[in-house]
Amino acid sequence: MHRQLNNTDQPASVASLAGSTASQASVEIKGVCKSYGEEWEQQDVIKDLTLDILPGKLTVVVGPSGCGKSTLVNLIAGFERPDRGEILLNGRRVTGPSKDRMVVFQETALIPWQTTYQNVVFGPKLRGDIKGKALYQRAHELLTKVGLQDFMDKYPLQLSGGMQRRAELARALINQPQIMIMDEPFRGLDAMSRGLMQEFFLRLFEENRHTNLYVTSEIEEAIFLADRLVVLSNRPAQLRTVIDIDLPRPRHYQVLSSPEAFEYKRAAMEILHQEAMRSFRPSVTGRLPGRP
Amino acid sequence: MVSVSEVSRPIGIARSRRSFLRRTLGRQEFWRGCVAIVVFLILWEIGSRSGEWFGYTLPHVGLLPPPSDVAVAWSKVLMKWGYWESWYQSFKRVLTGFIAAQIIGIPFGLMLAVNKYFRDIFFPPFEVLRPIPPLAWVPASLIFWPTNEMSIAFVTFLGAFFTIVINVLGGARTIDVRYLRAVQSMGASQWDLGGRRGRRDDLGRRHAGRWRSRLLHLEFVYGRIAAANRCRHDLDRHCRLPFKHRHPHDRPQCHALAQAVLIRKTGADHAQAAQ
Ligand SMILES: Nc1ncnc2c1ncn2[C@@H]1O[C@H](COP(=O)(O)OP(=O)(O)OP(=O)(O)O)[C@@H](O)[C@H]1O
Ligand SMILES: [Mg+2]
């Protein structure tokens, strides 16, 4: 694992591999509402959310579990449409999925019957935009970057959880997305590999500074990674606050024990705690959870 | 560094062929199976010869000819032409029925999976006919097929057809939405370039894109099938792919095809909605 982390010190940077021109994308979320269910029992999941995702920044969204974070990801990725409001990528309205917005999913979404290599080259091959030797080289370099060069012919189920996540990162990066969206990508990993993966991911980000939206429900992870920390309310998800995290980069795990980090954590925790309490109260008083 | 061709070659086909026999012989399951068959034959022999050997004929088993007699009779039959002719005829019937069932059943199952209207119309009658056992079709098939051969093939066809359709449908239905979404993001919508709607690109790129995605599509299907077939031998033991056989009749090939096609189809729908 450590050896793989050290790969980031190699001169071939992912910024050059993944095309640094594509990185300065911004996303505007304007008054977005989304609800599920039939009309008579509609359940608001996102309510009037307005948020800017700034170019070249790592925006981290935290919120209580079930507040609608994955729904927000689906909306930005274009898998689902907002009921009201709109989402703009570089000023252009998002209408469906596209390689501009790659998602690393909460659970692994590597195609199980394809090898790591085949998974990584799937997108470019499908679109035919990179071919032959060039494609192989790019895939190989990216896989080396994420430390999987020896696992190219393995199937996803033959990889460990952390390796799967890294393969998925490589698969997303090869498509040169304008924004990377990560939906709790390291959930389900053990604490050790999660820490390593976070640091690894942070190196990647600091190297190429692609616009990145990172969703998590863990406050420490959020502060460790974020340029901007977006705190969502309990369902229906609304913007509670945005905290600019002004910790030095490149960051290392020790930064979390600094007084500044502690202060950020305290501030965010306070809000999240209020939200968590709010989600419990209605069920105590006998009303439906999530209803005001 | 490994070359491109080395990587894209289907993994270890030659290697797995060479060592297949050795791996089989080294497997405990194999020997357990052999022992089970031998024990079965011995018990049968003892049962059949019980009257001869112990003076007491066991019920049922005692009436059967012992396997050693069967083997002797078989060795005589082996010399006769008619025996092999029967083999040939049976094979022909079964294969005709089975291949016909695939040719009709797989597209039919895919259509059921992919198109709601098609499903609404054809699924109910299909479900009405499905529980009828193939043997019950024999009288009917004798009536509406001109030759005996054809009615036999038809009954075989029915035996395979319903299973195939249900498997294709089941395979298509069990695709996880995550895979669909992942391949949509990567541009799976190119599948549906021709046909119902125009595209922004010029015509040339359209056709190039279509062929490209068709080829890729085939590869996708092939890869899925290969993986399904390979999963029991080649992959590590603890690595069980999710589409292993769930039922003796369960056919990974059908699942494979269904999933691959549906993944394309959903991508296409999405792109269309986005227009
Ligand atoms: N397709 C759907 N149909 C109906 N309800 C849905 C659907 N998707 C999500 N929901 C509801 O929306 C709410 C938010 O779900 P979402 O998955 O976005 O939460 P989340 O914040 O990502 O939670 P977690 O942290 O557990 O991943 C949940 O209450 C869920 O029941
Ligand atoms: Mg989620």
Question: Layout of helices and strands, plus pairs?
Answer:
The complex is a heterodimer of chains A (292) and B (275).
Chain A: H1 2-6, H2 14-17, E1 27-36, E2 43-53, E3 58-62, H3 69-77, E4 84-89, E5 92-93, E6 101-104, H4 116-127, H5 132-145, H6 161-173, E7 179-183, H7 191-208, E8 211-216, H8 219-225, E9 228-232, E10 239-244, H9 259-284
Parallel strand pairs in A: 3-8, 3-9, 6-7, 7-8
Antiparallel strand pairs in A: 1-2, 1-4, 4-5, 9-10
Helix pairs in contact in A: 4-5, 4-6, 5-6, 8-9
Chain B: H1 4-8, H2 13-25, H3 28-48, H4 50-54, H5 67-77, H6 81-114, H7 116-129, H8 138-144, H9 148-173, H10 177-185, H11 203-230, H12 252-274
General description of the model:
The complex is a heterodimer of chains A (292) and B (275). By secondary structure, chain A is of the alpha/beta class. Chain A contains 9 helices and 10 strands. In chain A, the strands form 2 sheets. In chain A, strands 6-7-8-3-9-10 form a 6-stranded mixed β-sheet, sandwiched between helices. The longest helix of chain A is centred in the last third of the chain and has 26 residues, at 259-284. In chain A, 46% of the residues are buried. Chain B is mainly α and 275 residues long. Chain B has 2 domains: 1-76, no CATH class; 77-274, Orthogonal Bundle (MetI-like fold). Chain B is 71% helix and 0% strand. Chain B is built from 12 helices and no strands. Chain B has helices spanning 4-8, 13-25, 28-48, 50-54, 67-77, 81-114, 116-129, 138-144, 148-173, 177-185, 203-230, 252-274. In chain B, helix 6 crosses helix 7 (116-129), helix 9 (148-173) crosses helix 12 (252-274) and helix 11 (203-230) runs antiparallel to helix 12. The longest helix of chain B has 34 residues, at 81-114. Chain B is extended, with a radius of gyration of 26 Å. The two termini of chain B are 43 Å apart. The model of chain B is unreliable at 1-14, 190-223, 225-251 and 266-275 (pLDDT under 50). The interface between A and B is large, with 37 and 38 residues. Adenosine-5'-triphosphate is lined by residues 36, 45, 63, 65-71, 106, 217, 235 of chain A.
